Amino acid sequence: MVLGYHVIFGAYGFWLPNDPRGSWSDFVRSWELYQYGRATKTDSRRSVAHRPHNHQARLRAKDALKYPPVRCSGVQARAIGWGFATFVDKSGLVVWACSILPQHVHLVTARHRYHVEQVVNLLKGQATRQLIREGIHPLAPLVSPSALTPKVFARGLWKVFLDSEESLRRAIRYVQSNPMKEGKPAQNWSFLTPFAERRSPRKRV
Predict the structure, then answer these.
(1) Taking the mean position of all CA atoms in its chain, how far away is CA 108?
(2) Deepest of 75, 131, 139, 194, by most Cβ within 10 A of its Cβ?
């Protein structure tokens, strides 16, 4: 039985649908980007980030993007966290671990009444609204005031189904250690639920 999920989703431009290492996309929507190859759909349950690939070709493909890849600052990451907290409080989603990095997000969550894809879409939406509310959406300065603000997050997600306490603990440790791997301090968001309390309903504040 599925107890939870380890999900990863990227900021705009972080992981392209035709990344040579594989992606979670079924097709490439942009013609300019399609010239660098079709979608590289993968169902791997392990990270493909360290697979050998043509690094320069991947960077050339990123040059075809309409906007530069998003890289969030610490202040923007804090706003994304506040957006997540708003959704967690409204929905009762249990989140055991979360790392908000400059170009992607890791989460370990409990199974919820919503499908995991819907959960991620709602988290992205709430985070984006918080960035706009604070006036720090990373792509807002690149468009005119009358235009729609581009999405800060890429489409889709990468997910692993976690069906044992051991797999949950392993995923939680992995996510907790991610900031330090990038030379950043550990993160301890207010909306997290300690794993030991996972059988108890989350109290709303």
Answers:
(1) 11
(2) 131
